[in-house]
Write a structure and sequence with these properties.
mainly beta, 5-stranded mixed beta sheet, Methylamine Dehydrogenase, Chain H
Length: about 425
């Protein structure tokens, strides 16, 4: 007769019931064969190691690399391997890592604290496990206060200006118009699909935009944008600046110089070459820069009554101008040219780049920035100009900052934001 299941089990040979009951001496060697072992892969062989998280873009020299550096060790079946010995070694930049050897936990994780070197530069630590490909951790360390640039991709932007860190306008091709409120950028409807090039104002409720293929000017009253002027002739308007809300100048292509007196716009065609940039110290001390009818540069000055040509200090075309006082004005242009006005005359200054520099902005006499083609960004520290890593090779057309620690640049890739490392 067929035995019930329990009875059949009870009659099984005793040898089979004890087959997986090892002696103490054999326990370690046959535990896995008997169906034991940790399901997390405690005794499996390491085959892979991966980084947990990502490397920070930068770290203040001498500070912690984020909070720690972490790896995860797995076997050939992608199961975590506990007990693996992970070694952390500082390869580049100095600094220290603690501890230098870590045993992976039950989930295959191992972590160590990495304090970067005190000298700014590249810092790298290597995580190693025998028989497994090493994993590097690397970052660039900078001195506290160093401007670090990050990208905010958008459509092509041509000009940028604001009244504060929480009130910034950017304009660009196809009528692009964006506003920054201190937290995020919001698109606005400009009312045109033509290129917008320059932006400037006197307050959050009085902002001007210029551009257009036939010369157009828009105004913002704090509530909405409206078209206030159309030249009606072929030619782009590039720059705008004023001494007050009722004293505004706009410059552009040949004979495109306009003045607003608070009521109407009038054509002031006393500057004949193409003018790309304009900046003023006061209403009676304004500079305009551009190109002659040939390849050379030109500088014009307004003294409150008339515009007059001034020797530019270079034969290169100029496109950007900004200053901090009547005796400290910078202009930049083709081939990386930089010229400076000291209150008496313009003279050429050594430049660290041959890329065309489209725009310049200064926070103080010892803190100026210029941007240009190929992602070029250069900085003046009060003594000399030097190149700065921008993180892009896209062309940059405009630069402006609310302070020396909060700077915006715009170009074909959209926005770059420069903030002081801390």
């Amino acid at each position: 007769m067929t035995l019930p299941h329990v009875e059949r089990f009870a009659t099984l040979p005793r040898l089979r019931l004890r087959a997986c009951v090892p002696t103490a001496a054999l326990a370690a060697s046959i535990l896995t064969a008997c169906g034991g072992g940790d399901s997390t892969g405690t005794n499996d062989v390491p085959a892979f190691m991966s980084k947990v998280g990502s490397d920070p873009a930068y770290v203040i020299a001498g500070a912690s690399f984020s909070d720690s550096i972490r790896v995860n060790v797995t076997d050939a079946s992608n199961k975590p391997v506990s007990g693996a010995s992970v070694t952390f070694d500082v390869l580049v930049g100095g600094g220290s890592v603690t501890p230098t050897t870590v045993i992976a936990d039950a989930n295959g994780n191992a972590a160590a604290k990495f304090i970067t070197g005190t000298t700014p530069g590249i810092n790298t630590v290597l995580a190693s496990v025998t028989g497994v490909t090493d994993v590097p951790f690397s970052t660039v360390t900078v001195a506290a206060g160093t401007i670090v640039w990050s990208s905010i991709p958008t459509d092509t932007l041509r000009g940028v200006w604001g009244t504060s860190a929480s009130d910034v306008w950017a304009v660009g091709y196809h009528g692009a118009l964006k506003h920054f409120n201190g937290t995020s950028w919001t698109p606005f409807t400009s009312g045109t699909t033509e290129p917008l090039v320059g932006v400037w104002g006197t307050s959050p409720s009085n902002v001007w935009i210029v551009g257009g293929l036939n010369g157009t000017i828009f105004h913002y009253d704090g509530a909405s944008w409206s078209s206030v002027f159309e030249h009606g002739e072929r030619g782009v308007l590039f720059g705008v600046w004023g001494g007050s809300a009722s004293d505004v100048w706009v410059v552009g292509n040949t004979d495109s110089v306009f003045h607003y007196n608070g009521t109407t716009w009038s054509n002031v065609a006393t500057i004949t070459p193409t003018i790309f940039g304009m900046w003023g110290n006061t209403a009676s001390d304004i500079w305009a820069v551009g190109y002659t009818l040939g390849p050379g540069g030109t500088v014009f000055h307004y003294d409150g009554a008339t515009w007059s040509g001034v020797y530019p200090g270079t034969t290169q075309g100029l496109s950007g101008v900004w200053g901090t006082s009547a005796s400290d004005v910078w202009a930049t242009g083709a081939g990386g040219v930089i010229v400076h006005y000291n209150g008496t005359s313009w003279s050429s200054v050594s430049s660290p780049t041959t890329q065309g520099l489209v725009s310049v902005w200064a926070a103080s006499a010892s803190d100026a920035w210029a941007v240009g083609y190929g992602g070029a960004i250069i900085h003046y520290n009060g003594t000399s100009w030097s190149t700065v890593t921008s993180g892009t090779n896209q062309d940059l057309f405009g630069v402006w900052g609310s302070s020396g620690s909060d700077i915006w640049a715009v170009g074909t890739a959209g926005l770059l934001h420069g903030v002081a490392a801390r």
